[in-house]
Design a protein that fits this description.
Elements: H1 16-41, H2 51-56, H3 58-71, E1 74-80, E2 85-91, E3 102-108, E4 116-122, E5 129-133, E6 141-149, E7 153-161, E8 167-172
Antiparallel strand pairs: 1-2, 1-8, 2-5, 3-4, 3-6, 4-5, 6-7
């Protein structure tokens, strides 16, 4: 028997090097599975499915903005955030067709679920005045407001609403 080497009880689970070899790959596997689960179960909502078609239509959008400049359009928009009543006073340097409905879109910059769209009808009493309703309440955040007449012209304006803001007033000019 060798007396210089006392026999030690060296079981594998008592060796810290073994636990280090097992621990790091196990953490990597758990992190990888968690990443796969998160990627499969959530949606960002910010990327459009038909982005290619939207990219092809950019020239149509540019033409509508150019047409708004040619017509000399200007709109004063008032939206009651509590009731959703939207009133637009539209002016143009060149004549516009009367009795046309306008499309009115309120687009939240980051949360697509808050986007709204409505049709605005012309007022019988006042020329150039249109009204309609959005779904109240309209909360705070960064928004884009779009006003358009079919495929003919479009006005677009970015704005920010604050907490407890009762009325939104915006002057829209062509870009």
């Amino acid at each position: 028997m060798n007396q210089g080497n006392p026999q030690r009880d060296e079981r594998w689970y008592r060796n810290p090097m073994v636990w280090m070899v097992i621990f790091f790959p196990a953490v990597a596997v758990v992190a990888g599975l968690s990443t796969i689960y998160i990627a499969a179960s959530t949606s960002t909502g910010l990327v459009e499915d038909d982005y290619y078609k939207q990219g092809l239509q950019i020239n149509r959008v540019i033409d509508r903005d150019r047409r708004a400049r040619e017509l000399g359009l200007r709109a004063e928009v008032t939206v009651d955030t509590r009731t959703g009543l939207s009133r637009i006073h539209l002016e143009a340097e060149k004549p516009l067709p009367s009795n046309q409905e306008l499309a009115f879109r309120l687009v939240h910059r980051t949360i697509p679920g808050l986007d709204q769209q409505t049709s605005l009808t012309p007022s019988a009493q006042e020329a150039g005045v249109y009204s309609g309703y959005l779904r109240p309440p309209i909360g705070e955040g960064r928004w884009t407001l779009q006003l358009q007449s079919g495929e003919e012209w479009r006005l677009k304006q970015n704005f920010t609403t604050g907490p407890e803001q009762a009325t939104i007033k915006i002057e829209m000019l062509p870009r």
